[in-house]
Amino acid sequence: MPITVHAVRSVPKAATASLALVTSEAVSFGVDGFDAAVLEAVGFEGKADQVHLQPAEGGFTGLVGLGPAAEVTEATVRRAGAVLARSCSRHARAAAGLPVDVSVPAAEARRALAEGVILGGYRYTAFKSSAGEDGGDSSRRLDRVDVVGSASAGAKDAVARGAAVAAGVCVARDLANEPGGSLTAPAFAEKTEAVAREAGLESKVWTTEDIEAASLGGLLGVNRGSTHPPRFVELTYEPEGTPTATLAYVGKGITFDAGGLSIKTAQGMMAMKMDMCGAAAIIGAMSVLPAVGAPVRVKAYLPMTDNMLGGDATRPGDVLTIRNGKTIEVLNTDAEGRLILADALSLACEDEPDAIIDLATLTGACMVALGPSIAGLMGNDEPFVDQVRAAADRAGERVWHLPLPADYVKQFESSVADIKNIGGPHGGALTAGLILKEFVDDDIPWVHLDIAGPARAESDDGEITKGGTGFGVRTLVELALGYTRPAPG
Ligand code: BES
Ligand code: MN
Ligand code: ZN
Predict the structure, then answer these.
(1) pLDDT 10s digits, 218-227
(2) Ligand 1: does its nearest atom lie under 6 Å from the Cβ of 229?
(3) What is the rounded CA–CA span in Å between residue 457 and residue 37?
(4) What 3-state class would DSSP assign to 28?
């Protein structure tokens, strides 16, 4: 269970750990209750990520550094919240004090702190035989953090918003971290339905027959090597009142990517249970929309299957017909994400939304280009690209705009079908984006986020935890909250 966070007036007696977030200036001027000579002796200067703890009656008190006041942003506070949660993970209940000498508005600081605490305290324990009691990595006794300073409606609302978004990120992380043999497409669809029910979203699960009837040739082609049937899940969020716009969220849901007959290496397969992180981020984000009261209608399109090597698996050279009638020659079965997304994007376009965003762990090439922590952002419409980029900035998720060069389309010309499913040896993130673009109507603003890098982390770092990160949830929630339709004309 995620840590619960509450806004309270003063430090509760039951909190056996009490930590305050402090800037380096605050430390140099002196902090009440902490001996300046002791802080100096242990080298605590209030730098970002620095922690100082000292025993107190029944537990401890402490300080978490933020660095120079002028540099403190929401992201700094979120990060410090995560550091705080890790520092008191052995205490059931902790209190957190906000800094007083920073320019981040109090509501934003409370929201970011709540987010950081919950995200930093996240653990995946589903497969631990003695979760929380073994004293090992998975141990966390902390289940409640009180943000001290005010219990006003505004303070409570700010904390609740941060907690709601963080809970959505945890939904995505849990799905990402579940093994591929456990989270098959049918299991994934069932879990998605359960999330939808709990959050108050409409959901519809398509079975093999529905998928065949709808001619989702990409999804069926990728599924052909599997013993588990595919699923296609639609989720709908309807706001109260008239929606200000309709957005389509499309997510890659490959529950395990062995590469198909173009099989991956042992090394290349190790993290491939996470090839459904695009879909997971969308499910996590959708689960938050009712709680934060997003004003737009959002419909999600989630194709789900694994990419295996059964006796009748799609062979290199096979041709698939996508939902919209276009044909693709499959020359590398490991380039499967674009095949299932082609169907999903075609379906999304049929519903004529105001804009489409897709999230996919699509290419290793994007990780080569941008490294492990930054998503590649591509699109067909500058204003919408800018809106998504701004949403990601507000959310504290890192994205970088990459081009979709029209002349690179040549690289996936096919002699037998409309296109082939791979480009040349270089610029693989861009050719993958261009192949997706083939299935999007030119007059619908569309953005593609290649999250192959940031969907997964090698180690804990601030609010990021090792394993599935839930990258994209925060951006998608921000986008739904702040989306503005372009002025007509
Ligand atoms: N799921 C992978 C991309 C990936 C790689 C995600 C590493 C996360 C980490 C995708 O399906 C894939 O295999 N892409 C191929 C495409 C190639 C065959 C054109 C790749 O990137 O090598
Ligand atoms: Mn693949
Ligand atoms: Zn894949």
Answers:
(1) 999 999 999 9
(2) no
(3) 38
(4) helix
